[in-house]
Amino acid sequence: MAFLELEMRAVAPPPSRGAASVQTVAIAAALAVLVSIYLFFLVPYLQAGSGIFDATGHAFGRDFANIWTAGRLGVDGQTHLIYDLRLYHLVQDTYFGVDYPLHAWSYPPAFLPFVLPFGAMPYLSAFALWTVLTGGLLLLAARAWGADGWGLALLALSPAVIINAFGGQNGALSAAILLGALYQLDRRPVLAGILIGCMVYKPHLALLMPVALLAAGRWQVIGVAATTVAALILFSISIYGIEPWITYITETAPLHAKVLQKGEGAIPLMMPGAYMAARVLGLLDYAPYIQAAFSAIAVAAVAWAWRRPDEPILRAAIFLAAVPLAVPYAFNYDLTVTTAAAMLAVIRFRGRVGWPLAVSGLAVCALPALVLIVNTLELPLGPLIFTGFLAALLAALNAIPRATAHPRRAAVAHTP
Q1: Which residues, in sequence order, are bridge partners of residue 50?
Q2: For residues 176 and 186, what is the distance between their CA atoms, to the nearest angstrom?
């Protein structure tokens, strides 16, 4: 009971009816502006396309071509071609019937069984299903945390989610898995561990999870997650053999480092992390050290926050906010995690956040689109925006007195 009274004092009171009306009008106006901006770009983009292709020669959904191609190769029993870049490109030329722009499958073999259904469908139908399914999972995860109708609408129309939908990417899926795992941590630890293990498909985005779980002493979750990872790896080996894993480890994974160091075109513009910021500034030789410094900040922040047994919403927000700061290899479509972190902060304080958290939260929500501009101008602000947002979250957590109730009961009592 004492804990509940403490939490009632710590959480901002609900806004008055007049303030709520102002908030509703502001949210509706923001949504109208976002829709107008998206339509301004979407209509000519669709009009310039032909068939399933846009004006640049990519299929609509762009990077979804990788999901569909890998699934199609699996259906055709030719998974051995997926990790051979030259043959993979020739296969895409065959499937799409044109000299298709170069793509590459960069995911572990454990992900392959899950893309098979999409390869069995026509391309546009598969793309539509992928977009609705991954976006829907993200909204369901956000709803579990307590996001209401307006909040869900803002999330669905956020730059990160729209970029994922346009680009056929998996950022919404990653955020949904991480949000779901963090939500279930105190309720169903086995399910949380299974969800964490599913991040084996994009393991670098879960790099901070061991830090968080060790700091919190969640040994059961760690065991279940490790078991899930092992099971998914063994399952993929039982289907495809060990060769795809050998190729992935020896050839595909090192390709990520080459992308960081030498990737051209849109790649440097889409990466908001510290490593790419150093490269954009002409400091490539120092990029590993600069990245290490920001990674250390992320690790320290998560370790400190997750030693607290209370405040599960803020702990989850801090974890998600630290993810793109900790890793060198993240694109703007991966920033669904930071958008989700901003959403959690709004939920925790019922929309009445202080100006440092409000400003930094708006900045990280805008960054998926903003990074294209600032990196082009050689003003890579991504790491500073991440750090400012993380610092605001840590300050908000530090300002709340520690709860004295039983840790698990306290956490469950404080989340929706």
Answers
A1: 53
A2: 17
Which tokens hold the place of 399? 């300002």
Look-up of token digits 């977009």: 131
Tens-place pLDDT, residues 48-96: 888 888 888 889 998 999 999 999 999 998 988 999 888 998 999 998 8
Q: What is the mean pLDDT of residues 339-357?
A: 89
Nearest Cα residue to 38 out of 171, 143, 192, 157: 157
Q: If pLDDT is split at 50, 70 and 90, which confidence band does 21 have? A: low
Residue 316: closest CA among 346, 278, 273: 346
- Per DSSP, the three-state class of 59 is strand
Are residues 82 and 248 in contact, defined by beta-carbon separation less than 8 angstroms?
no
Predicted structure pTM score: 0.90
The number of CA neighbours under 13 Å toward the Cβ of 180 is 23
What is the Cα gyration radius of the chain? Answer: 22
| pLDDT tens digits along 383-410 | 999 999 999 999 999 999 886 544 454 4
Place of tokens 């910021």: 277
Distance CA 27, CA 30 (A): 5
C-alpha span between 319 and 192 (Å, rounded): 15
Give CB contacts under 8 A, 24+ apart, made by 348-353: 348/11, 348/311, 348/313, 348/314, 348/317, 348/396, 349/11, 349/12, 349/396, 350/11, 350/12, 350/13, 350/14, 350/15, 351/15, 351/23, 352/12, 352/13, 352/15, 353/396
**Which among 22-31, 76-85, 132-141, 352-361 has the top mean pLDDT?**
132-141
Phi, psi angles (nearest 5°) of residue 185: -55, -45
The per-residue pLDDT for 210 is 97
As to burial, measured by CB atoms within 10 angstroms (0-12 exposed, 13-18 middle, 19+ buried), residue 85 is: middle
Q: Are 317 and 299 in contact (CB under 8 A)?
A: no
